Amino acid sequence: MPQAPETTGYRPLFAVREFRAVFVAHAFSVLGLVVSEIALSVLVYDLTGSPLMSALTFALGFLPYLIGGTLLAGLVDRFPVRRVLVVCDLVCAGCVGVMVVPGAHIAVLLAMRCALAMVAPLFQGARTATLTDVLGDGELFVLGRSLLRIVAQGALLAGFGLGGVLLGVVPPRGALLITVCTFLASAALLRFGTRRRPARAHRGQALVRDSLRGTRRILADRRVRVLLLLFWVPPMFAVAPEALAAPYADGLGTGSAGLGLLMCALPVGAIAGELYAGSRLRPATRTRLALPLVCVTLLPYAGYALRPGLAGSLVLLLLAGAGSAYSLGLDQWFVAAVPAEVRGRAMTLNTAGLMTVQGVGMALSGTVAEFAGVRATVAGAGVLGTVCCLLLAVEARRTEGAEAPAPQGSATETRDGADHDVTGR
C-alpha cells in the first residue's frame, strides 16, 4: 500500500516516470500558451492599429473558459484521460497553426483565440485528474499539483520575457509558429510518456446534458461547494493590483520598469510561498495552516491605503503572493471530497471557475477604480476579500469530515505503481 514520503519536498515526485513526462509537457504547454497570447495580441495590433482590439484578444480568453468548463466538462471523464490530453494539445497546435497562415482574417484569429480558451480548462482539468492516477490522491498528489502551479507561475514570468525577446527577433507569426512546436512536443510527451487508462465514466447521455448533470452533482455537495469557493474567491480579489498595475505605476512615476516589477511581485511571492510550504512543512502542518492562510492572504492589500511607494507596494504584493500557499491544504481536501468518477470534470470546473472569476475581478477592479481611485480599490479588495474568506473558512470548518470515502482498493492507495517508483529509487 503506497505511503506518503517520510520527508517533505518535491524530489520524490521525479522518481515517478510518468510524472516526469507530465511535468515537462506542462512546462511546454504553458510556455506555448503564454507566448501565443502575447504574439497574437501584437499581431492583432499590427493588423488593426487598435489598442481596443489588442486588449480584446486577451479578454476573449475568459468567457470561453466558462463555456468549455461547464458544457464540455463531461469529455474529461467520458474518454481515456491520455487521449483527452493529447487531443487537446493537438487542437491547440492546430488553432495556432491557423493563426500562422498569412492573410488570416482578424475574425479568424479571434475565433482561434476563443477555441484555445475553450480547450484550456478541459486540458487542465484532465491533467490535474491524471495526477491522481499517476501519484495517488495523497501527499504526492498535493506536491505534484503544487509543483505544476509553480511551473505555471514561472512559465508566466519567463513567457512574458521570452515573448518580448522572440518578437524582437522574429515577426509575430514566427513566434506563433514556435508555439505550435511547444504544443506538439507536449502532445508527444503525454502520448509516449504516460500509460493508457480507461475512462472514468460511461458514455450515456448527450455530452452537454451529461456535463451539466455532472456540474450539478458536484455543486450539490456542500463540502465541495465551499472548497470551490475557497479556490475562487481569493483570486477574484487578488487580481486587483495586477489589473490596475499600469495606472498605479504611472501614479508612482516609476515608468515601465516599475510596472514590470509590480506585475512580477505577486507570482514571485506565490512561487516562494509554495516552495517553502512544499519543501519545509509537513502535510499535517500545511493542512492546519490552510484556513488561517486563506484568511490573511489578502490583508496586505489593505496597506495600499497607507499610500506606499514602489518598495512598500512590492513588499505587500510579495506577502500576499506567499499567502497563496494555502492551496496545498485545499488540494488535499478537494481531491478527498470529490468522487473518483467525476474527478476529471470537478477539476475542469475548478479551472473554469478560477479563470472566470479572475476575469470578473479584473473588470470590477477597473470599474471601481474609475470612481474610487486605484489605491482605494486595491485596499477595498483586501478588506472585502478578507471578510469573504473568513466567512468561507467558518463554513469549511463546519463541513470538515464530509469528504467522499475512497473506493476500497483504489484512489489513495493503489495508483499504478507510483509507490514502487518512489520507494524503489
Name the poorly predicted regions: 1-7, 404-425
Can you summarize the main beta sheet? none
Classify the secondary structure makeup into a structural class. Answer: mainly alpha
C-alpha end-to-end distance = 17 Å
Radius of gyration: 21 Å
Q: In percent terms, what proportion of residues is strand?
A: under 5%
What is the N-to-C order of secondary-structure elements (H for helix, E for strand)?
A: HHHHHHHHHHHHHHHHHHH
User: How would you name the oligomeric state of the polypeptide chains in this document?
Assistant: single chain
Q: pLDDT average, as an integer?
A: 83
Beta strand count? 0
Tell me the number of helical segments per DSSP (H or I, 4 or more residues long).
19
Q: Tell the overall outline.
A: globular
Helix percentage: over 70%
Keywords:
mainly alpha, disordered N terminus, transmembrane, disordered C terminus, 425 residues
In short:
By secondary structure, the chain is mainly alpha-helical.
Structural description of this entry:
The chain has 425 residues and is mostly helical. The chain has helices at residues 17-48, 51-59, 63-71, 75-78, 81-100, 106-135, 139-169, 172-193, 207-220, 222-238, 240-243, 245-252, 255-280, 283-296, 310-322, 326-337, 343-372, 374-398, 418-423. Helix 5 runs antiparallel to helix 8. The radius of gyration is 21 Å and the shape is globular.
Which helices and strands appear, and what pairs or packs with what?
Elements: H1 17-48, H2 51-59, H3 63-71, H4 75-78, H5 81-100, H6 106-135, H7 139-169, H8 172-193, H9 207-220, H10 222-238, H11 240-243, H12 245-252, H13 255-280, H14 283-296, H15 310-322, H16 326-337, H17 343-372, H18 374-398, H19 418-423
Helix pairs in contact: 1-2, 1-6, 1-7, 1-8, 3-6, 3-17, 5-6, 5-8, 6-7, 6-17, 7-13, 7-16, 10-16, 10-17, 10-18, 12-13, 13-15, 14-16, 14-18, 17-18
